[in-house]
């Protein structure tokens, strides 16, 4: 699959999954498809067109799984902010850190800052 095609493909569709799939479903779909389309396994057919198709599909399966199996990359992909080029640059590290912070359930904030509404000075001191 060409670099331009990879950016436009839907990783969930490549693996035959829905966006809400679990990690176990993701892993099972990957294993099943990787075994089916592995180029070494498909080379036994002797058909060069089939071998080339298997190679392209296997690369697409590998690419989809590498993104969706990583929680940070999957989060970025789901919100439309993931680009495979970012993996090779410092921007990917930065976006990964942002994704990690955004995906945390509870903010790590001092109890004083969690208070809302009017607070007396006594409550702030104690």
Automatic annotation (TrEMBL):
Domain spans labelled J: 10-81
Domain of life of the native organism: Eukaryota
UniProt xrefs under Gene3D superfamilies: DnaJ domain
Protein known as: DnaJ subfamily B member 6-A isoform X1
Native source organism of the sequence: Cinnamomum micranthum f. kanehirae
């Amino acid at each position: 699959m060409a670099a331009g095609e990879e950016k436009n493909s839907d990783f969930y569709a490549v693996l035959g999954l829905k966006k809400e799939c679990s990690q176990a479903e993701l892993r099972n779909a990957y294993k099943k498809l990787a075994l089916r389309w592995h180029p070494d396994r498909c080379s036994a057919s002797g058909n060069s067109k089939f071998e080339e198709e298997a190679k392209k599909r296997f690369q697409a399966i590998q690419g989809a799984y590498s993104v969706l199996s990583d929680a940070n990359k999957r989060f970025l992909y789901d919100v439309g902010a993931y680009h495979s080029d970012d993996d090779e640059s410092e921007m990917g590290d930065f976006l990964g850190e942002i994704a990690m912070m955004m995906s945390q359930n509870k903010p790590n904030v001092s109890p004083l800052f969690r208070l809302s509404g009017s607070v007396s000075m006594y409550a702030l001191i104690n």
